[in-house]
Amino acid sequence: MTDLRGNWSYPTSIRFGVGRIAELPEACKSIGLKRPLLVTDPTLAASAMVQDAVSANAAAGLPTAVFSDIRSNPISRNVDDGLKAFRARGHDGVIALGGGSALDTGKVIAFMAGQTRPLWDFEDVGDNWTRANPAGIAPIIAVPTTAGTGSEVGRAGVITDETAHAKKILFHPKMLPQVVIIDPALMAGLPPRLTAATGMDALAHNLEAFCAVGYHPTADGIALEGMRLVHENLEAAVKDGNNLGARAGMAAAAMMGAVAFQKGLGAIHALSHPVGALYDTHHGLTNGVFMPYVLAFNRPAIAERMAAAARYLGLDDPSLNGVIAWVLELRGRIGIPHTLAELGVGADRLGELAEMAAVDPTASGNPVPLDIPSLRALLEDAREGRIS
């Protein structure tokens, strides 16, 4: 484990390695924080890692309060409540500690700290991000405790509009955390089921980025190596949560996926977002369900690219079929459901889900153009377990 350490400055300052959570007080001081708000989820709020972080900051003269009223798929009310706490207590920055829900909510709270417009005025549509007052965005430190979303190195947050029952993306360049602490030891206690679901999220980000339309060789290279890290480490991390080498590999893969998908995403996410919004399913788990169906649908556009990926991963069958077979085998070994029906998705809502997916901002990155009929067909295949 002593070799799995580094100080990385792409795309932001990243402190990677076991035990580096001890550097949190110094990291706060390095960006001028004196009274941070630690945003986390309700389960982690009572954990030793959060209590230790608060105590360490207090000992360093950095009084730190905790806000944890966050749903697993955070809603705008969670942001509003966190914003009230941030302003009422005079905080000057955010420590977002936890999985994707805590990271996204913490980042959006920091983003909204000094804004006067309402939240949805900044939805990632067109140039809405330019409406924000950059000086009103509070500094952010991100500490992931799962290896999935990679939100710790992202410039956006996903929040559910509970009125519209839709997940929406808030974006601004200054939402990128100034310091990231990735400590694989913080992930050791993650249960196998969540390790599997978040790991499939990391795989989906790297895989879709590699397949997305557009020219971005840097993102392609990062995505390819991210897939290799998942291939070599996810099953091991699920089987033994204390395998810190596997945890480190998955932590790096998750971070790399979020860097790579600046190139784009696609139908996996376009379909997963509305399912999560309507059924409150885990995002990574839902991505894992959709993955083989979308790979098969995209066959005309990605066969050659997936053959290259299969060769890099060392699969026995160096083809798109080989990649699909690997995904199916991996899902079976780590307990990812095969169909939407297993997630409770009813046939009566497939039309509604297809319409929502068609306007999801990630749909445009799919290598095969999407429309409502094709998305409906994908949903039907995923519900019935048909892979063409």
Q: Could you characterize the architecture of this molecule?
A:
There is one protein chain. The chain has 388 residues and is of the alpha/beta class. The protein has helices spanning 24-30, 42-45, 48-59, 76-88, 100-112, 192-211, 217-239, 244-260, 267-279, 283-297, 299-313, 320-334, 350-358, 372-384; strands spanning 6-8, 13-16, 36-39, 65-67, 93-98, 140-144, 156-161, 166-171, 179-182. A 7-stranded mixed β-sheet has the order 1-2-9-6-5-3-4, with helices on both faces. A two-stranded antiparallel ribbon has the order 7-8. Strand 1 and strand 2 form a beta hairpin. The chain is globular and about 60 Å long. The mean pLDDT is 96.
Write the layout of secondary structure elements.
Blueprint: E1 6-8, E2 13-16, H1 24-30, E3 36-39, H2 42-45, H3 48-59, E4 65-67, H4 76-88, E5 93-98, H5 100-112, E6 140-144, E7 156-161, E8 166-171, E9 179-182, H6 192-211, H7 217-239, H8 244-260, H9 267-279, H10 283-297, H11 299-313, H12 320-334, H13 350-358, H14 372-384
Parallel strand pairs: 2-9, 3-4, 3-5, 5-6, 6-9
Antiparallel strand pairs: 1-2, 7-8
Helix pairs in contact: 4-5, 6-7, 6-8, 6-10, 7-8, 9-10, 9-13, 10-12, 10-14, 13-14
